[in-house]
Amino acid sequence: MKPYLDLLRATRGGGARQRNRTGIDTLMIPGCMMQFDLADGFPILTTKAVNFKSVAAELVGFVRGYDNADAFAELGTKIWNANANENRAWLENPNRRGAGDLGRVYGVQWRRWRSPRDVPGGPDADGRGWTDSGTKVEEIDQLRRALDTLMRDPTSRRNIVTAWNPGELDRMALPPCHLIYQFIVGQEKNKLHMTMYMRSCDMFLGVPFNISSYALLLSIVAYAVRMNPGKLTMFLADCHVYVNHLEQVDEQLSREPRNLPGLLIAAPFRTDDVEPIAWLEAFRPVEAVLVDYRPHPPIRAEMAL
Asked: What pairs with residue 118 in β-bridges?
């Protein structure tokens, strides 16, 4: 995890003090990159414990297109509860549909992106595919398209999934911080690589979670399409440390890193007559198992809303 620790140290030591919407200043540096080769082990912090069960549960919720914090909680993570029920701006948003609602966040965009093209036909039985104004629109399952492309045209350079939908930012409890990712196939070794972009990067709390989440997404997608997970490359725009996290950052940087764990995918392999997306949708958080994960103790800090 040297790329992460080096960037955390650089942000802590050389970041410029910035004001922001949360009211808690940050130390910030712009435009950074990290790369992790999954052949070296599963990229998860060892200098503090990361709740991998919560990582896996959140990712499964994204893959399934969940839009309610209660659904994420049923999978095993309460990470979205505060944004759903304590974020004042969202609580006052007329688009919020009651307790637990998150609006059209990450997984909704991955699985049900609304196209501006009108399509013929009447209402769906469950009401999906309609805007609030009553206009029928096409919904695009970006993740399904990505897996189909990996199977049909693996050398495509257009295999991109995005959660940044400018027309629906006001319908989200939180606009996406990690907003786009792309699959790239290295055919010579049948390796699946991923690049992703983050606009806002909480280096102490959020980014460690994001590293492991996207490494897990890369791993299970590679498994579903019968490839080997390769390199995860992360482009980070606004890298910052909140000033109320400085003591925690210093404690983490004082610790000696330990060996990375391995990842075991304890799910039955899909048969030839099962689509990769169907296998992915059926994947459960408990089927992602870290092997020999022995981190230092956790370090607590408050999330800025």
From this structure: 137
Instruction: State the residue range of the domain holding 243.
Output: 2-291
In contact, 198 and 235? CB cutoff 8 Å:
yes
Domain count, the chain: 1
Give every CB contact of residue 145 below 8 A, 6+ residues apart in sequence: none
Exactly one of 32, 177, 201, 239 is catalytic; name it. Answer: 177
Is 177 in the active site? yes
Q: Give the residue carrying structure tokens 């839009």.
A: 67
In a domain, 14, yes or no: yes
- Residue listed under structure tokens 């911080």: 177
At residue 70, what are phi and psi to the nearest 5 degrees? -65, -35
In angstroms, rounded to a whole number, what is the distance separating the alpha carbons of residues 244 and 8? 15
Q: Indicate which CATH number applies to the domain containing 92.
A: 3.30.572.10
Segment-wise mean pLDDT, segments of 10 residues, the chain, 305 residues: 97 94 93 97 97 97 97 96 93 95 97 76 50 70 97 95 96 96 90 97 96 98 95 98 95 97 88 85 96 96 77
